[in-house]
Amino acid sequence: MSSFHRFFAVLALVWTVIPAMAQDLSGLARVDPDQSALFDQDGETVLDLRLSQGVPYRFFTLEGPNRLVLDFREVDWTGLGVAAFNRSGRIDDVRFGGFRPGWSRMVLDLAQPLKVRQSDMRIDQTNSTARLRLHLAPVDRDQFARLSVRPDGPEWGIAAPAPPPSGNKRRLVVVLDPGHGGIDPGAERDGHSEKDLMLAFARELREALLRVDGIEVVLTRDSDVFVSLERRVAIAHQAGAHLFLSLHADALSEGHATGATIHTLSDQASDKASELLAERHNRADILAGIDLTGADDTVADILMDLARVETQPRTARLAEALIESLRAAKAPLNRRPYRSAAFSVLKAADIPSVLLELGFLSSDRDRRNIIDSDWRRTMAAALRDGIQAWIITDASLRQLVRQ
């Protein structure tokens, strides 16, 4: 039996280990932090999770970096901190949170290759609480590589957005991409997370754009769920996007970054700060346990390069229009508001795509602005005006090209 088939045999057993009562479970399972632990014992590492009820789950390992991923349907991690788990010498880090609608995820970064030697979920027949124990045993790199199987594509657990209506020939589809989400909070400062603020701003910008005749808006996520970078681009293509705008509010520990910046795609970063931002954003998939092995290098593909011959100048004009509109609205701009780097989420060759850092949560001034809903609505109006200006210019220039 191949390692691939062995994985799904284990997966099937995991799902059947919970009796038919699992179909009748309602509400979210909660983790008991006082009774849960992660520890080394007798040459192995044990993950012991105490849950308020039994839930279906699955697990798998991935390389690059080595990690163990556990998916649950569904666990409420509210109030649980990483400190609830005693660190094991074989585990570098632990993360958990929402992942897909109806699904939660836990990721263990492995300091050395480990395999799940034994897994067991037991349901207390008296109070219906559950105890999940995973025993992780060391293996060599070759065996870990054979056992590490990507169980699904980026579409797993995410429904494609409904296609926009096709009857209106004047429709122009704008895809808004609120960064991060679910298990990936993005930047965090003073109790505020980038994922929540950018989702709020995306909804506000959507409302502003929908007041413009002929514009339709699609969000890559409209709730606190994780969406892979590859999936965000796929959503834009499925929606027939004419414009893709990714929304962020990062934090940089090096230097003092302030003010809004617009980023476009480039193989070579325009500056060190943009390079660091691209590395942080592109690492989101790995943090959430996504396997990027074998992903196509779209930048290197010659067909993509040919498509960008037309798209790149249109993207540059979009970036300039947004910057000018933000400047007209007296928005705080970075001293170098137009930058570029190899952001994976901007790799749609046929769609003008830009990434907006609305500001930086590491800046006190920017953070005060970004958490202010009135300020965000002013910025949404400015971006709406910039998008409208670009649409008019783009349509006139494309008409000249056709003639």
Give a summary of the structure in a few sentences:
The chain has 403 residues and is of the alpha/beta class. 32% of the residues lie in helices and 27% in strands.
The computed structural class is alpha/beta
CATH superfamily of the largest domain: Zn-dependent exopeptidases
Topology as H/E string? HEEEEEEEEEEHEEEHEHEEHHHEEHH
What is the fold-level CATH name, i.e. the topology of the largest domain?
Aminopeptidase
| Side-by-side strand order of the widest sheet | 14-11-15-18-16-17
- Roughly what percent helix? 25-40%
How far from one another are the termini?
Answer: 62 Å
Which second-level CATH architecture of the largest domain applies? 3-Layer(aba) Sandwich
Discrete helix count: 9
Count structural domains: 2
Instruction: Evaluate the radius of gyration.
Output: 23 Å
Strand content: 25-35%
Q: Outline the biggest β-sheet.
A: 6 strands, mixed
Shape: elongated
Key traits:
403 residues; alpha/beta; Immunoglobulin-like; Aminopeptidase; six-stranded mixed β-sheet; four-stranded antiparallel β-sheet; 32% helix; 27% strand; elongated; disordered N terminus
Write the layout of secondary structure elements.
Elements: H1 3-16, E1 29-30, E2 37-41, E3 44-51, E4 57-62, E5 67-72, E6 75-76, E7 91-100, E8 103-110, E9 114-123, E10 130-138, H2 141-147, E11 172-178, E12 188-189, E13 192-193, H3 194-210, E14 215-219, H4 229-238, E15 243-248, E16 260-265, H5 272-282, H6 284-287, H7 302-328, E17 333-341, E18 353-357, H8 364-370, H9 373-402
Parallel strand pairs: 1-6, 11-14, 11-15, 15-18, 16-17
Antiparallel strand pairs: 2-3, 3-10, 4-5, 5-8, 7-8, 9-10, 12-13, 16-18
